[in-house]
Design a protein that fits this description.
With about 375 residues, the protein is α/β, with parallel strands linked by helices. It has two domains: about 45-330, no CATH class; about 335-385, no CATH class. It has helices spanning about 10-20, 20-30, 35-40, 100-110, 125-135, 150-160, 200-205, 220-230, 315-330, 335-340, 350-365, 375-385, and strands spanning about 50, 55-60, 65-70, 80-85, 85-90, 115-120, 140-145, 165-175, 190-195, 210-220, 245-250, 275, 280-285, 285-290, 295-300, 305-310. The radius of gyration is 27 Å and the shape is elongated. It comes from Caenorhabditis briggsae. InterPro entries: F-box_dom (IPR001810), F-box_Sdz-33 (IPR012885). Pfam families: F-box, FBA_2.
């Protein structure tokens, strides 16, 4: 028996729509213009939309993904394949093309965030339209990516628009830009990853506010990187930075960084590994300390693909971590194993004698071949509860 849905009270109707997934809501919106308008009057949803340049649109809700695919045959309209986290529905695309579908879904669902806008395949013109739409609507774009196989001139023409977008999490660029290419960020996302990054110069690095910076095929020299590292050592400089990774043609052993001639590494037995949760790890790096006590780990390697790795510990953990390192610097240090304990109020009150007693226990346990997570967990617990 048909249900007169639009005769429901507005509040009840909103609750019904709130229970619908994107496919159900899309099908309802296609029943009539009135139904679509009613759906649009609902609350703005925290759904996110993604577009990769082809004939496909993705709407995501947390870890569930709903793909709107173009149906080549009318008999396949609204055919749905549900797979739990990944779901597909085939629909009739607007006559004007995929960009109009983006506008329709965004307006109908009240979407305010673009999860991912990437120029991987399909029409670059459509991606540009989506970018302009996001600027006009002041939408957040979490991830913006430019692939290898784009027309260089199209991308060069697009870059001024990029500086107007609100990219918050990641900018990823793989394009081989022309030698005279130049671009400067107005606002930096949390992460940048640039391959063929010859155009990203030291002034841009000094201005960068990202937490993670990855530059491949760079032209930054020892002198450039020394300037950066010297500035980083000043209290308050680069407060967001957690990871810097640079592969450069100009890193060599001809001039120092922080008064050290590359390669910059240490050789210990056993080797030292530092892991900062969420930002990766580094092995056999040299410890560098800022004026405010923040600890960084620096490693520079030479070769055909010379590289600089710089991993920074969050300031919350730096003081406590330094105590650990001073006492146990000859052992493998896994930050993921000590983060659980660093906020304990009694950490700085640990009795020095008991620490030395625990140190003996550590030496005896590590002598039997194990820096496993379980061993380290037990060791740190014994230190803190001794």
């Amino acid at each position: 028996m048909p249900i007169a849905l639009l005769k429901f009270p507005t509040d009840l109707l909103r609750e019904v729509f709130r229970l619908c997934d994107p496919f159900e809501l899309y099908k309802l919106s296609k029943c009539s213009k009135r139904t679509q308008r009613t759906i649009m009057l609902g609350d703005t949803r925290n759904w996110k939309i993604s577009f990769y340049g082809g004939n496909e649109m993705l709407v995501s809700i947390d870890y569930s993904y709903y793909y709107f695919n173009q149906a080549m045959n009318p008999k396949h309209y609204f055919q749905t394949n549900l797979g739990g986290y990944t779901n597909h529905m085939f629909i009739e695309f607007p006559v004007e093309g995929v960009f109009d579908l983006f506008v329709y879904l965004t307006n109908t669902f009240g979407i305010r965030t673009i999860k991912s806008l990437q120029m991987i395949f399909g029409s670059f013109a459509n991606v540009s339209k989506v970018a302009k739409f996001s600027i006009d609507r002041n939408m957040e774009t979490e991830i913006c990516g430019i692939g290898f196989n784009q027309d260089v001139q199209d991308v060069v023409n697009f870059m001024p628009m990029l500086s107007q977008m609100n990219i918050t999490q990641l900018f990823d660029c793989s394009l081989m830009c022309p030698p005279d290419f130049h671009f400067e960020f107005v606002k930096y996302p949390s992460q940048i990853c640039i391959r063929n990054s010859f155009w990203f110069n030291i002034n841009q690095l000094l201005d960068c506010t990202s937490a993670e910076v990855r530059l491949y095929d760079s032209m930054l020299s020892n002198q450039d990187l020394n300037v950066f590292l010297q500035k980083w050592k000043n209290a308050g400089a680069f407060p967001n930075l957690r990871l810097l990774l640079i592969h450069s043609r100009k890193i060599d052993n001809q001039s120092p960084m922080l008064d050290i001639i590359p390669p910059i590494t240490i050789v210990n037995n056993p080797r030292i590994k530092v892991l900062v949760h969420g930002h990766g790890d580094i092995i056999d790096a040299v410890r560098v300390t800022k004026d405010d006590g923040t600890i960084g780990w620096l490693k520079v390697e030479l070769g055909i693909y010379a590289s600089l790795e710089f991993l920074i510990c969050p300031s919350l953990f730096s003081t406590s971590l330094q105590i650990f390192l001073e006492k146990f610097s000859s052992y493998v240090i896994h930050l993921r194993d000590i983060e659980r304990y660093l906020e304990r109020e009694d950490f700085d009150k640990i009795d020095e004698k008991k620490v030395h007693q625990s140190n003996s226990l550590i030496r005896s346990q590590l002598a039997f071949g194990g820096q496993t997570d379980t061993h380290m967990d037990t060791i740190f617990r014994q230190i803190l509860t001794a």
